[in-house]
Amino acid sequence: MSDQDKEMKDTEQKNGKDREPEKIQTRYDRKMQKRREEKEREAREKRISTILGVLIVAALACVVISFPVRSFLTVHGTRMTVAGEKVSQVEFDYNYNMVKNAYIAQYGSYMSMFGLDLTGDLSKLAYSDTQTWQEYFEETAEERILQNKALRKEAEKAGFSFDTAEEYAQYEEDLKDAAAQAETSLKAYVQQLYGPYATMSRLKGYVEEAMLVNAFYESISEERKPSEEDIQAYYEEHAEDYDSVDYHLITVNAELPTEPTELADPVDESEDQDAQDGDGETAYKPSEAEVAFAMEEAKKKAEDQQDTVAADGELRENQRKSAVASALRDWLFDPARKEGDTTVIENSTSNLYYVVAFDRRYLDQEPSADVRVIATQEDNAQAILDEWKGGAATEESFGQIADNYNDSQIFAAEGGLSQGVLPNALAAELSDWIFDSARAAGDTAVISPENEELHYVLYYVGPNDPRWSLEIEQTLLSQRMTEYVDEVTEPYRPEEEESSQEGSDQEESDQEQQDSQEGTEGNTDGSNEGGAQ
């Protein structure tokens, strides 16, 4: 029973809802009750003088012990029940802070640009019209818990096992390092991350469960990885989302008037006087007629340049549909479009015209590569590479050294392996080396980009699939895994609120009918069937 349920029950008891049906009292009953009350009052008054000191001592003791008792109940009590398992406040806090911290790490700086501070009181910060940010993160945490419990049960059914000892030891070591860098104790750091009741010992089981679930999820992902045939079929169905176009563009803006012309709307004298009395900084708003005239003139200029746009227009190369202005997308990606086609397209929202010449449409084969990376803040990159060369000097040994030197706060990939790296995602110095046409598997290098504080030791593993193929692979895999998780969690989801409420209302109605039939007889076994349970 949750704290809220207990509170509701206590309230009902105080209101008399938990009492047995009252028995009809006779005159004799009332007389005997009065005698009992008088005797109880006399005995109570006699005890007052002797127990007053004891009561004061007991009251002080209650103040002292109430805090640890409250803490014990919070830690070991049940916050919620998921998939038939009790979830404590500590476990809920752990998941709540995991989703909140991950969200802030990914979007925090972006959201601060809009004045949103997610480090304050989230219960007073609106996420939507009906939900606060705290409620949003609570809801997300509940979903995370549900998925973890369901996936763990699936892992058990499949006989899946995973030794978490090594990964947990690394996790614990990372926390200690992070606490030291923050110049605080491990205990304080853990509570700061995961909630006021969190300790390493209390979290251990939840962390290991998450590690097991993650390993199981990855194994299922590998099984459901799409084939090359799947990827090609998806591309053919959604080609316009992955193809690129080259085109030439001229933009012709309408020259809107900055002061009234003969096409301006009539102005009321009082309004005109108010404008003159103002600060004079308000920009003139052209009338519809003035805008229409300016747009007509812009259209003529645009049409005059249609024949020369292929030569004079700005060349836009390798443009995906998502990167093209919305007004141009349908025309540029029309399957009937051919080289040399030109057109003039209106943008009434921005009061301008586009003059466009189509060059070509194609599937860009932007390459990707797999590399192993060691990133260090110290000037010891060459020493690390020499250490590797002095050993087995294999890809496996490079991965082992990467795990020894990589700071998980900077680069956390196991063995330093980074797959599907794209040229534009890296510093120019790194990209130039990795995608050099002469690059061969097993090549190594030490690179220190000018505008970075990090030094890199690189091991070239080999080329990967082109960007478009990797994107489709990820899209299909994400869809399949979403369907899988939905499938395994569905049996553990609570019934819809409406149906649950209907069931509750029906039970209450049936109970009321039963109570009515029982009348004033009471319950011979002392139970209270009609009360809140």
Give a brief description.
By secondary structure, the chain is an alpha+beta fold.
Residue fraction in strands: 5-15%
Secondary-structure-derived class: alpha+beta
Number of helices, counting only DSSP H or I runs of 4 residues or more: 18
Task: Report the C-alpha radius of gyration, rounded.
Answer: 36 Å
Q: State the shape.
A: globular
* H-E order: HHEEHHHHHHHEHHHEHEEEHHEHEEHH
How many beta strands in the DSSP annotation?
Answer: 10
**Mean pLDDT reading:** 84
Low-confidence stretches: 11-25, 45-56, 497-504, 511-533
The major β-sheet equals: 4 strands, antiparallel
Query: Percentage of helical residues?
Result: 40-55%
Strand order of the largest sheet: 4-3-6-5
How far the N terminus sits from the C terminus, by CA atoms, comes to 9 Å
Observed structural traits:
533 residues; 4-stranded antiparallel beta sheet; 18 helices; 10 strands; globular
Commentary on this structure:
With 533 residues, the protein is α+β, with helices and mostly antiparallel strands. The chain is built from 18 helices and ten strands. The chain has helices at 3-14, 27-76, 89-112, 133-157, 165-181, 186-194, 200-223, 228-237, 239-242, 269-277, 288-304, 309-312, 326-332, 381-389, 395-405, 428-434, 467-489, 497-518, and strands at residues 80-82, 85-87, 244-253, 314-320, 342-347, 352-362, 368-376, 417-421, 444-447, 455-464. The strands form three sheets. The chain has a four-stranded antiparallel sheet. The protein has a four-stranded antiparallel sheet with strand order 8-7-10-9, with helices on both faces. It has a two-stranded antiparallel sheet with strand order 1-2. Helix 3 (89-112) packs across helix 4 (133-157), helix 4 (133-157) packs across helix 7 (200-223) and helix 8 crosses helix 17 (467-489). The longest helix has 50 residues, at 27-76. It is globular. Mean pLDDT is 84; it is low at 11-25, 45-56, 497-504 and 511-533.
